[in-house]
Amino acid sequence: MNDGQTSNSGGRAAHSPKVLREAIVEIVSDSGEGAQKAGQSFATVCAKSGNGVWTVEIIPAEIKPPARSRAGASGIRIRLGSETVTNMGDEADLVVGFNEQVLYGRIMNSAFREGTIILLESKWATDPDEQIRDMYASAVEDFHRRGLIVHELAMHEACLAYTPNPQLGKNMFVLGMLCWIYQRDVELAKKEIVSIFAKKGEKVIGSNIALLEGGMKFARENLTYCFDVPAMKAKRDLIVTNGNQAVGLGVMASGMDLVSMYPITPATSATHYLSGVFQKAGGFIHQAEDEIAAIGFAIGASYAGKTACTITSGPGLALKTEFIGLAVMAEVPLVIVDVQRGGPATGLPTKIEQGDLFAALYASPGDAPKVVMAAATIEECFHMIITARKLAEAFRTPVIVLTDANLATGQTPFPRPRPVEDWMEAPIDRSPWPEGLAPYAWDEETGLSRRPVPGQRGGQYVLTGLAHTGQSHVAYDPNANQLGCEMRSRKIAALAQTLVAPKIHGDDSGDLLVVGWGSTIGSIEEAVDRVRGAGHRVSSVHLRFLSPMEPGLTEMFGRFGRVMTVELNYSDPPQGFWGNPEYARRAQLAQHLRAQTLHDVDYFAITPGQPLTPGQIERVILAKLGEMGVVERGAAVATA
Amino acid sequence: MFGLKTDWSLDVLPRYFTLEDYEGGTARWCPGCGDHGVLTAVQRICRDEQLLPEQTVCVSGIGCSSRFPHYMKTYGFHGLHGRALPVACGVKSRRPDLKIWVATGDGDCCSIGAAHWVHAIRYNMNMVVMLFDNNVYGLTKNQTSPTTRPGFKSNTHPRGAFLPPLNPTLTTLSITNVSFVAQTVDWNPVHVYATLKRAYDHPGLSFVRIMQRCPQFTPMVFEDAQRDPSLILLLEDPKGVVADEAGTKIYKNRLAHDPGDINRAREVASREDVIPIGLLYANPDNPRYEDMSSVGVDVTIEDKLAALDKELGRFAI
Ligand SMILES: Cc1ncc(C[n+]2csc(CCOP(=O)(O)OP(=O)(O)O)c2C)c(N)n1
Fold first, then answer.
1. Which residue among B28, B65, B108, B109 has the greatest number of ligand 1 atoms within 8 angstroms of its CB, and so is best to mutate?
2. Closest partner residue to B311 among A249, A308, A460, by Cβ?
3. Is it the case that residue A604 has pLDDT exceeding 90?
4. ipTM rounded to 2 decimals
5. How far is the C-alpha of B85 from the C-alpha of B128, rounded, in Å?
6. How confident is the model at residue A64 (pLDDT cuts 50, 70, 90)?
7. What is the pTM for the complete model shown?
8. Ligand 1: distance of its center to the CA of B107 in Å?
9. Helix or strand or coil: residue A347?
10. What's the mean pLDDT when you consider all of chain A?
11. What topology does CATH give the domain A18-228?
12. In CATH, what number does A504-639 get?
């Protein structure tokens, strides 16, 4: 264990650093002040130092919300730990606030606790505007009352020594402060600055390094504490990306030929990332005139034998549903990535929700079975695209991959993938089509069939969205339609046959099984570990496949006293609003699981527009155990 | 083996295609429907140009006219109402080697698919787009279409259509990067053939509006022009549609029209007293989207892996 004395920080503390297992840090500012850049750099420095890291961006919905407004809080949370970090954690330990109003935005989100250290920009105390001075003074008083430890610091003024415009440079000054507070190697931070400003030239790099060093000095001189979060011992070959970059890398690693998209938050940044590099990997990004055209274009390319995907978010998925139905009906391979945000309609464009499960499963008219998968981690955002692309082709079907706003913008280190040729697309089949073979020569057992591609001599057929025979001839008779439906359904069942039962986190049986899907895995498992640590018989399981479902769930659920999902989507109280549970609308996965397993699945599902914290889930679990009579009722219920 | 020919020996034999090689069974349009003639013209062009059936793709939306691909023996894509163009563009984007014909109706193209129409014109990908303009929704049985003329009684407007009709030709001529616009009439097979052939020869998106009679719902809309050839204005130019004189000699009303002049083209397209037929505008030099979208199709797997490895290196810690 690091005793704190070996730190190689340039800003050696007069006071020895306090050793911590983990720390949750936030930088909160008006938008446009560079807090996210500083936080990402700090996270990279921590990851490079061997720490586990998880970041969550704090994003206002508007591009340029009014300054000093609560709703305008913009910034980033970085949770770093000695071990791997899988979620954003509970309340922050230390916060740098560029003004006091944005901190209220975080207080509204329960981001702070008693004892959270607030390093607050103090220039507002002497602002020429009396109203601002008053707001500041009363906020500081209020923060004290709330038990926050407030340190008012003249950061803006200190920056003036290095830049005439602290609004632009303060973020790197803050990076310097954090490097000192957490005893980071200043050289790593300098490297980050060099790479961020590489295109801007030496002068800009120089002045930002001066700001960085100024920040370290400022923290050393003005703060009486510093911390050390010792690194993991084993250093592996890692990369750090956010989920959308991971999707972009996955697109390339899967040998995808075309990405066809229409801009929509929070999905677009995957394309922003790809646009710089995709061509070198042999791919093309088409920005279509709308989401319908985007998927139509991708389907056209796929029909012509090229691997294609479309990346979108909920409103875009809604527009694509008719085409998804066509891809199901005509068995066109296609990968559709839905980076979920809050809905319905425009909803919460920048915020997390797991509200698109039903839309993904059922939105197309008629019976439209398809593959639906959900990435649980940023690493899975990468690997799932490769799997999805292969499934799409092997099963001649659209595959929807669900991620979310939290995965999209969060960053964490994960093992560097080692791409292999096998991940890439096979070359277009240009061999003549076997004589007499139908374009949908369905295997009776599996529903699978080989697909002709334009250019294949003798394979000419007319793909149609109308009901059709194996010859792709339009057929309205009852038997032909029933057969077509069955064959498309058999393919999904055949895929199910190849899946393995999901692994249980914890014991194989117990009082309560928590079921999750998507990005909540880290928080759920941390909460389960905590209650298990306290002696409770609780386990969790996380689902990657939503259609078809992974096998063995019914039997697995039977081994637990109760089963409940934890989800980020809307649900009514289980007893209904007026005591009639018949009308209670259940959480999406819970409803899906009930239908599939006939098991009495409970749920905890809310739509706060932010990730669930481990503490929140822990309280929900304890409350559920209390309700079941497994723990003392009073102790549990009070906190839920 | 996958991706490889199984038999190389026959490849040296020349192939000759007859009309039959492009005929995909009996067309099920109503007797007297203008779509039949267009189908025949396309099949003849395929034969005359000896297009490889496996390298030819017919894409359509939904509507009577969109049944077109079913009656060809090429590859076909009969997709969704209004969405023929995005699919066709997608096919072309990474397979510029394929020859593409698009069939779309006035509802399909100018109503539900209007956004795609505008943008496909601007993408200007090399293909022939045939607008079957029968002034009505045929398949769904007689509803007003964007090109229905005022006063026409349909099932949705039994007291007569109210709004002035959209002029698809003029609209197309106003879209940035438009590269080819022509008009023809289904009752003159010689002119239909010559127009579609000229469209096929043009490098870029060739938009051809075909005035087409629906025997069921709009048999009379072009009756005047059929009976009185002077209501047709034949556009003439050596670079334009050059049809066999035997087929066009009835048209005495003629106009020498340079298809390089977009302003004159718009003027001609605006005429309501006559139906101009022939080539209104062509510019073979406009940028084509496939020249950009197909970049990189030949990158090898080794190079892809190398590019990816380099990218992963950028994120390494
Ligand atoms: C999304 C959707 N909306 C409506 C329809 C019904 N529909 C099918 S064809 C058609 C209009 C056909 O008219 P047009 O495009 O002019 O072609 P025509 O039949 O006259 O050749 C309509 C409204 C549909 N198939 N899909």
1. B108
2. A249
3. yes
4. 0.96
5. 11
6. confident
7. 0.95
8. 6
9. coil
10. 94
11. Pyruvate-ferredoxin Oxidoreductase; domain 3 (3.40.920)
12. 3.40.50.920
